[in-house]
Write a sequence for this structure.
């Protein structure tokens, strides 16, 4: 009887749980490639060969922890890789600090043996436990606050007395899309990134009990800022963050000190013809018009959104789209996303009001735009020149999720922008 790839991977975790490392690692091919991303306090890297990995990666890892458990919660086989979502739990032997963090692992198997293993997603928390006060480390906290009966998760870092940057994510992502940007700015600024209800780690109330509209998302974020005590802030808006953020800005202009726009459209000329299926659905929602937009909820499209137009798609961390797809695939989430697709029709009619806000209140604006975005074209970036005379527009050679390619460059642009416009 042939053992499936998912069974093989599941057996690995069961053997680790029992402490039988020899049995666990029997699945490793001699030429195994083991990939870990760099985290604060951990260099990461790509390691080659079973014996090298046992001696220099897995062995020291196991020796570092006590009460260690690596528990898969969901294992799926895409046909190309086996994806494992789960949790780490344990206690660091040296510091005595307990930890718990989510992880995403991917396995590539050939003839029943693992030839490639990649560690992805939120394993960063595990390594922060090792060096909780390491030099140059930025502590990013994951927290939850109840907003009008809905638990809203948010990431927060940096000194609370510093100027605040409020990061508003796009579809189909969450605050996870800012995982590289937050620590790049939080040494000097207070950075806050919430997940909207129905996205990421925020609660996902039933659409019968919660209105999934852009108006309601903006009201939720406004109430969220009140609850955590944000008096004023700079906005960073991307994709859905555009209509959410500009609703926030027009309702509370005195609180918004400036806006960073990254592929967040508020001009008709920026809308690509690739959005025609969405336009058809939001204008006339029928089973026939719904079918094409359901394709926007699939793993292939999520990966496309992260990789299309990037300079080297193979270099983009799969953690981005794997993490997003995990939450899209939850039972009932499709109804939430379809509701927001239908409600998108409320956004273009508000473009003139948002443009008038820019002319009237004259907030400083920085535009960092992936010029190869298949949905929001560079014309959307250039549109800001009409309403913001001193706007900075930077067209980057990347796609819709520009942070996947250019987090460092965008962070540097933001630093310069904030340094120029923060009141002394």
């Amino acid at each position: 009887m042939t053992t499936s790839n998912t069974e093989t991977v599941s057996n690995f975790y069961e053997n680790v749980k029992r402490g039988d490392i020899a049995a666990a690692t029997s699945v490793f091919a001699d030429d195994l490639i083991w990939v870990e991303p760099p985290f604060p306090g951990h260099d990461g890297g790509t390691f080659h060969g079973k014996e090298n990995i046992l001696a220099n990666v897995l062995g020291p890892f196991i020796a570092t922890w006590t009460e260690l458990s690596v528990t898969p919660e969901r294992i799926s086989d895409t046909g190309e890789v086996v994806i494992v979502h789960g949790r780490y739990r344990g206690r660091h032997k040296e510091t005595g600090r307990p930890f718990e963090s989510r992880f995403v692992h991917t396995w590539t198997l050939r003839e029943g043996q693992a030839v490639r293993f990649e560690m992805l997603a939120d394993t960063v928390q595990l390594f922060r436990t090792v060096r909780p006060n390491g030099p140059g480390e930025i502590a990013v906290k994951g927290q939850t606050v109840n907003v009008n009966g809905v638990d809203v998760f948010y990431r927060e870092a940096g000194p609370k007395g510093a100027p605040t940057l409020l990061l508003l994510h796009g579809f189909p992502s969450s605050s996870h899309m800012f995982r590289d940007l937050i620590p790049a700015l939080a040494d000097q600024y207070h950075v806050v990134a919430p997940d909207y209800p129905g996205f990421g780690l925020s609660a996902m109330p039933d659409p019968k009990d919660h209105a999934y509209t852009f108006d309601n998302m903006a009201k939720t974020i406004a109430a969220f800022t009140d609850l955590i005590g944000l008096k004023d802030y700079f906005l960073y808006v991307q994709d859905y963050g555009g209509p959410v953020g500009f609703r926030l800005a027009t309702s509370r202009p005195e609180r918004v000190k400036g806006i960073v726009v990254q592929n967040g459209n508020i001009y008709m000329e920026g809308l690509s013809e690739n959005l025609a299926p969405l336009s058809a659905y939001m204008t006339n929602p029928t089973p026939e018009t719904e079918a094409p937009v359901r394709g926007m909820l699939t793993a292939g499209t999520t990966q496309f959104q992260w990789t299309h137009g990037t300079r080297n798609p193979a270099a983009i961390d799969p953690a981005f789209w794997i993490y997003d797809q995990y939450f899209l695939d939850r039972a009932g989430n499709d109804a939430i996303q379809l509701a927001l697709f239908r409600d998108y029709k409320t956004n273009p009619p508000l473009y003139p009001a948002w443009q008038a806000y820019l002319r009237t209140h004259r907030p400083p604006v920085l535009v960092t735009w992936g010029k190869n975005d298949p949905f929001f074209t560079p014309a959307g970036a250039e549109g800001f020149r009409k309403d913001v005379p001193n706007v900075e527009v930077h067209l980057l050679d990347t796609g819709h999720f520009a942070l996947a390619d250019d987090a460092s460059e965008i962070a540097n642009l933001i630093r310069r922008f904030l340094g120029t416009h923060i009141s002394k």
Confidence is low (pLDDT under 50) at residues 121-136.
